[in-house]
Amino acid sequence: MLLLTLVVSMAMAGVAFGEEEIRPPDAVKTDLLELGKKVYFKRCVWCHGVKGAGDGPAAERLFTRPRNFLSGNFKIRTTDSGELPLDESLIRTVKNGLQGSAMPAWGEFLKEDEIVAVVNFVKTLVEDRDFNDAEDEEVTIMEFGTNPWNTTGPYHLGVPQDAIDRGKELFTKNKCFECHGGEGRGDGNPTMKDDWGFPIMAADWQQCWNFRGSRRDPFNPFHVVRTVSTGLNGTPMPNFKDKLTIENRWDLAAFVNSLCPRKKQDKLTSKPVPDFLISSSNTPGTIAEKIDDPMWQSPDHDPRIVERSEEKAGNPRVNYIALAGQITRGKRNFDPKADNLWVTSRWNEEQGIYYLVEFHNRFLSTDPEYPDAVAIQWPAKLQDLFGAEKPYFIFGDSKKPVDIWKASFMAKDYNPAGAPNPAGYQLDVTVEELNGNGFEDVMAKDETTVQVVDSIFHQGRVKVLFKRALTTEGEMDVQIPVEQFIPVSFMQWAGDDKETDENMAISTWYYTILEPAVDQGHILLMAGVMGTVFVGLQGWLVWMTKRTRKMYSDGKVKQDELPF
Amino acid sequence: MNKPLLSFILAVAGWAVFHYGVFPVFTPEEPGWILNRYVYYLVFTAYLIAVNVAMKLQPPMALRGLYVFMMGYYFYDSILYPHVPWTLFITYMMLWAIGTFLYVSQDPVTFREFRAPIVKTIVGEYKMARIVVFTVLPFLVGWATYNSLYPKFAEPVELRTVHPAPPATTKVHGKTYALEEVSNPFRVDEQDNYKDSFPFLDADKSEYMKYVTEGGTVFFENCHYCHGDQLNGLGMFSHVFNPTPANFIDPGTIAMLQESFLFWRVAKGGPGLPNESTPWSSAMPPWEEHLTTDEIWKVILFEYWYTGWHPRTFDEESSVG
Asked: For the residues B110-131, what does the mean pLDDT come to?
């Protein structure tokens, strides 16, 4: 339905407005204000504040702060930069929310008339400008053209490669990388501020489900076209309407979109569905200990959505692990810097088990006192757990200890404000193994058996390759069995935000399993043998049945005499 | 037309119509007393019996046995909800197979009737049937062998008790509360009188709205990340946690709980749960570590005001059982 309205509105944008339309802004509908005020003060005031200044009780702890409406800056519009939005855009914003921020989608919660009413009420909170001022205010309704490749949702696959390539050239030519970084992870500029004076980060294009204007339809290139056509008012994100033709904008959108991994989206939360089972694939021969080996180069796309090239078809899945700030115990982290991790695993008997852990972090720490870090958490005493039992997910508990493999690191020769470095930065890694019996009782072990065999920080993405033997001597080390579900979870600390100890990002418990070696030939042989045995069985059955019948007819055996 | 064949066609076609046409109608997002999957199943069973009886089809015993077995399969595979794990499914089906066998072998006549078509197939009186069955079966066995030997892993299903029995007493900030006796000290008036009042604006005018405003402030400083700005369990961090944060809009959570139960849950959080409720993976914080007792009561007051639910009272508890 959402898609349909989109397609229709896009078609209208292309057909009806052959030329950009200029007109006064949508006036406030005063008859709706009473209802609007009711809705606002019950639902919105908690974030946006009593006067709409974005200072409700939630504001202090939110990283993208609730919007201050006073100045009349609205990000997601179909009007030109600096202009007021149409009612239609605000209504869509309220219905779909602003993904990647705390602003929720209200479409399923409020009724249509309540949404229209509250939008009109919000317009009255704007102080610096006036939606009713037809003389000084005008809006230019931008033209966006239509999707040239007629791709469809949810994943919008099938955009031709040459459009993507043209888009990449436009990306370089228009210097999007100065803010969005060399590969679009938003790692271009650490010092940006929005018009309200708060720090702001450029969007991470590889996580398009966090685009504010994604309208719960993240892979649709239209949203990128709209963003580069209108800019985002109140932020450093400019418009490119004079630098780019409409065709250019669609090509650029094709490129931006091609970077976003196609993962199934959860309809309720508008985030990718986590991969709750991390299968470690059995790798005969040698497992490469270099991250850039083809063995570790699987695309992030779900292989069921985007088919892999032949040479990568056998690579294990890259699993999506959702992270949130640890806001349960002790010192809480309300504004985590990473919101997910990607994990790939391989193992064999000789070398042990490997986990490649990747995450996006725009800027690393330059303060040795607060290094960045990432960790894998295991139950230390797997053998003592009964059924679904696990240690407490934040550093274990007094009865059930956890074993934590933690890699802390600093990038070498790194300057966050420097230009994108295509070679990436080497990392100085320190590996620690910790035992936790609760978040206030975490101790480093004397001996470590875990290694980090390779690592890199490249264009806003950290990659760390962990390795350990399946079993160790250590009494408080997890002993890793084959073909068994093992609880595992992940933690991440952002150094530039001074995160340490329990002030971190965390995942819930996932499972990992070491897949056994599969002897395909043997399984096929067994299938053949069983089939053949069954043929023999059938022959015997026929013979037996016929013999019995013959005995009946010969009168050797008497058939029971019940009527048939 | 051959009566058994007609019966078979009616059963298969009926199933297709029911499964693809009627089943979705009976499984709305919020099942009711009539519109639920089990009622659907009864209706389908009734249909199957009715056509056979009304049209006097008298399907042979072998076919009846097949119907009985497949109805069991259908129930455990598609109707029963939540879906049982694979191993349990196999166990149920074994029991069901035994049941079906007892049904067909209730006396020698039915048993012989049941056997007759099978024997005829084996000895070759039904020639086509024999050829088909005897070629397909070995392949099926080979395929099943391949499938069961090829290792496949799906994450284990975990069941948890969402609302465990609360303890008799709980100690919060050094004071012991008997949960049967405590009530919310800030519930100073009838909730419904404040349905259309404004937090903040009316906080100076009425004591009740002052508490609601304070409770809402606690909620929007602490709880919305998980339980959502709409109290629907879809906060910006909610997708990360498993079990997912409770949805207070849903009639299955605070609407059917007493405020004292909430007091215990909020104060003690995930770590305060008994083992059957998987305390190790509940992200629900033990709020006694972050909030005062008063703040806990106020946020509970706010949750009821915002959602419009009323807490369950002790009297209802005893009358509903």
From this structure: 88
The pLDDT, as a whole number, for residue A78 is: 96
Q: Provide the residue type at B278 as one letter.
A: T
Confidence bin at A564 (pLDDT 50/70/90): very low
Residue A216: how many other CB atoms lie within 10 Å = 18
Residue A38 touches chain B, beta carbons under 8 Å: yes
Distance between CA atoms of residues A521 and A5, nearest Å: 53
For B209, the enclosing helix (H) or strand (E) is helix B207-222
pLDDT at B303 over 80: yes
Q: Is the pLDDT of residue B173 over 60?
A: yes
**Are β-strands A505-506 and A324-325 bridged in parallel, bridged antiparallel, or unpaired?**
antiparallel
What pLDDT does B318 receive? 45
Exposure string over A107-136, b if 16+ CB within 10 A, otherwise e: bebbeeebbbbbbbbbbbbbeebbbeeeee
Chain B contact for A542 (CB, 8 A cutoff): yes
Q: ipTM > 0.95?
A: no
Cross-chain Cβ contact A47/B220 below 8 Å: yes
A119-128: pLDDT as tens digits: 999 999 999 9
A331: closest chain B residue by CA? B290
How many CA atoms, within 13 angstroms, populate the side-chain half-sphere of residue A552? Answer: 9
**Gap between the Cα atoms of A140 and A117, Å rounded:** 24
Return the bridge partners of B238, or none.
none
Asked, as a colleague might, if the bond just before A416 is cis with ω within 30 of 0, I would say no
A185 and chain B: CB distance < 8 Å anywhere?
A: no
User: Helix B3-17 to helix B61-74 angle, to the nearest 10 degrees?
Assistant: 10
**Residue A453 dihedral angles phi and psi, to the nearest 5°:** -85, -20
Confidence check: pLDDT of B271 > 80: yes
Q: DSSP alpha helices (H): ranges in B23-77? A: 23-26, 37-54, 61-74
With CB atoms and an 8 Å threshold, state whether B271 touches A542: no
Q: What single-letter DSSP state applies at residue A438?
A: S
Q: For residue A460, what are the CA distances in angstroms to A42, A360, A416?
A: 40, 6, 10
DSSP state of A107: T
Question: A61: closest CA among A264, A288, A332, A298?
Answer: A332
Q: Which residues of B touch A328 (CB under 8 A)?
A: 269-270, 283-285
- In DSSP notation, B252-315 reads TTGGGSBHHHHHHHHHHTGGGS-GGG-TTT-----GGGTS-HHHHHHHHHHHHHHH----B-HH
d(CA A329, CA A338): 19
Q: Where along chain A do its domains lie? A: 2-258, 277-514, 520-561
* pTM score, whole prediction: 0.86
CATH of domain A277-514: 2.60.40.1190
**Among the partner residues A57, A104, A485, nearest to B217 by beta-carbon distance:** A57
B123: three-class secondary structure by DSSP: helix
Residues 55-74 of A with CB under 8 A from B: 56-58, 60-61
Q: Is the peptide bond before B285 cis (omega within 30 degrees of 0)?
A: no
**Three-state DSSP state, B176:** strand
The domains found in chain B, sorted by start residue, are 3-149 (no CATH), 169-307 (1.10.760.10)
The tens digit of pLDDT for each residue in A338-348 reads 999 999 999 99
H helix or E strand, kind and range, residue A125 = helix A112-125
* Residue B51 CB burial class (10 angstroms; 0-12, 13-18, ≥19): middle
CA-to-CA distance for B78 and B134, rounded, in angstroms? 30
Span of A19-23, A167-171, A211-215, B176-180 with lowest mean pLDDT:
A19-23
| Residue numbers in B near A397 (CB within 8 A) | 271, 280
